[in-house]
Give the backbone structure.
Amino acid sequence: MFLLLPLGAAAQVRVSGSVSEAGTGRAVPGAAVLVQRSGRGVVANAEGDFRIEVQSTDTLVFRAVGFKTRRFPMGGTGLSQLVIQVPLVRDSIMLGEVRVTEGRPDRAAINRALRNVRRPSTAPTSAVKRAPAPKPLFEVDSTAPAAPVPTLASPVSLIYEQFSRAGQERRKMEEIRAQEAAEKTRKARQKYNRNFKDNRGYEE
């Protein structure tokens, strides 16, 4: 049922009113009031009341969840204001047929589901791998074999010692040490002889 209150003539019409449920008269809060020409509109408040300005040739569209859509053409009215009551009829929603069957999913579907499961990715290690430590030539608890001492009882070792490079180097080191010891003794005698007038503290 629509109530029209003529309040004057103008091209722009101010429409106000309320949206309610047909049969019960209960307010329909949140109902959308749209202008069909532009798609713009307002939303009814908690009491179902609304207010909107339209042209006299527009058509208002009323929509709400669970109700059938309703249209109200202005019809070129010459009124400047309209107060209307818009009852909306409940809409019956038909659900699609749901079929329940027995059985288990086939193996292919199970395999597809398992493949879609994201596996945890292992974080790459940023540590730089170091080169392994060099292995010693000898074991830690072992020592290199000592060189055999040449004696008269082993003439072969004695000859080898005399002509080998190691034997020559060893003899050079012994000569150098003997020279250093003689020089050290000579300097010690000179230092001691300074305490005597004839510089003969040591017998020559």
Observations:
- The helical segments are 107-116, 155-163, 165-193.
- The two ends are 153 Å apart (CA to CA).
- The first helix runs from residue 107 to 116.
